[in-house]
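Design review, sub-item: ligand-bound model
Attendees: FS, YL, KQ
YL presented the inputs for the 2-amino-3-ketobutyric acid complex:
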Amino acid sequence: MTKILITGAGGQLGSELTHALASFFGKESIVATDINENAGSLFPEIPFEKLDVTDRSQLLAITKKHTITQIYHLAAILSATGEKNPALAWKVNMDSLLSVLELAKEKQLDKIYWPSSIAVFGPSSPKQHTPQRTIQEPQTVYGISKQAGEQWCNYYFQKHGVDVRSLRYPGLIGYKSLPGGGTTDYAVDIYHHAVTEKPYTCFLKKDTTLPMMYMPDAIRATIEIMNAPKDRISIRSSYNISALSFAPEEIFNSILVHCPTFSIDYQPDFRQEIAEGWPQSIDDTQAALDWGWKAEFNLDKMTQDMLRNLQNHLHG
Ligand code: NAD
Ligand code: AKB
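KQ shared the predicted structure:
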């Protein structure tokens, strides 16, 4: 029987992916975990355990207790928070991945999912249609941890046959949760300001284009790669996936169509430099060829959906 452990389940991605996996496999097949014990209240019908992923023995004990067969290892420190505490970012992002991969090898787990990021690229990578394989010189601790993590995933697949799969997500945008310390967070925050009719101060310059993805596309991509036949997965580091690319002034204009009194100003901070080191658009040909990836949401479709859902939430 499939039994899935999710780490970092209380985060922006985990809080949505946990429900999606519970719908797909059944609630009894999921164990949600997070270092934040309040995260359990997000999943009242799903078993929840408090788990600090840097504690290898706790990870092992929970895996044994629930006879886990798959791990979705989402817990991480994101780019902006990572620059404020590099040692913590390295410990959480790197040590925990090695524990999960070693556990998968020892216990012969069926599958592992681990997200990477466009942060593996750096200022020397091509900015447009960044290829699957190209120069990678990341300039954040977060990016370095994701780049090294990708190589560890590939290593454990090649040397030990661990069936680990991974996606390089762009900035993720969803209405169900708030983002957790990334450089792309503005693209979620801006919608929350628009629906509550508050002006927005953006921490990036208005013309800073970044690759982004609406959460329903990200959840579908995750489930698709994990359900793909093993022989369709030709990349064992991490797949480029792409959906849309825009700058703050473009997302602002798409919101303005629906919220004509909304206003924005720009006060770039340390995250500007991080954003300028990342690609502007991503080539995801390999994911399309291998397991049929195709995004559905463009900017205007996402804006309509985000605003409608946030407004519904606001008005109960
Ligand atoms: P998030 O910051 O919203 O959530 C991370 C979760 O991990 C939080 O609930 C936090 O409590 C938990 N956590 C932190 N330290 C922990 C520890 N020591 N032990 C256990 N749990 C701990 O992040 P997210 O946006 O949900 O990202 C999930 C994954 O997706 C990460 O690996 C991230 O790198 C990747 N990713 C996210 C994005 C994005 O735009 N959100 C883009 C690319 C990749
Ligand atoms: C971040 O900004 O750190 C994340 C990411 C793109 O990995 N959203």
